[in-house]
Write a structure and sequence with these properties.
single chain; 3 strands; Four Helix Bundle (Hemerythrin (Met), subunit A); 9 helices; Arc Repressor Mutant, subunit A; 2 domains
Amino acid sequence: MSSNASAFTPAALAGTLAIQIAGQIGNAITEEKFAPGERLREVVLAETFNVSRATIRDALRILESRGLVKILPQRGAQVTMLSTSELMNLFDIRAALVGLASRRAAEHYVPEQAAVLAAGYARLKAAHKDADGYARASAMLVADIAGLSGNEQLADMLTGFAQRIGRYARLGLASPKRRTQSLANWARLIDAITRGDTDLAEATHRTLANENRDAAMAEIAARERGGAAAAGTRARRARVSAGT
């Protein structure tokens, strides 16, 4: 009987390391520890993770496939810019996916699952004053609900989608007021799931996603106005310095 041992190579193991590194860099991008447009230097990252530059390049290619990084010829990798059109497109998809996940979770709900939802809501409440912590807790609760949906493919899609949309979701939860509004909607969503109200569960989770989208849009617009104002100030100072 022939052996398939030759199908396995050390390179496959290196790929798992690249995936783990991509996850960490992706989280840092989501939380804006790397700014939009910032260059990601292979040498620095290789030293930070104590791995080869080849492994870092593999990790950056993974991040490029997730839309978080753009690899430019002769210039290397840089964090992609925030885009209102991407935001709108991503949240159109997200609203549909999370709505379906909550509908299925309500449909298949059994009382034994109450502890999972209660723990997720407790994490949200505990992180209310911390924008990054709240965004992470929210993403974890989405993953929990996807798991309760009974649809493995749907759960996988939401997991693969999480980092790419995470940077926008975080912007939409930047203010305490927004987090308070979000927390109230999460309470309504969990109540709908535990009562088996499929229509309300889907509608409420879609509302959560759409409110997050609108708040993120407003945050990007505010940043753009701030950037334009700063550019105008620099131009006026330059004219004064030149004596014009």
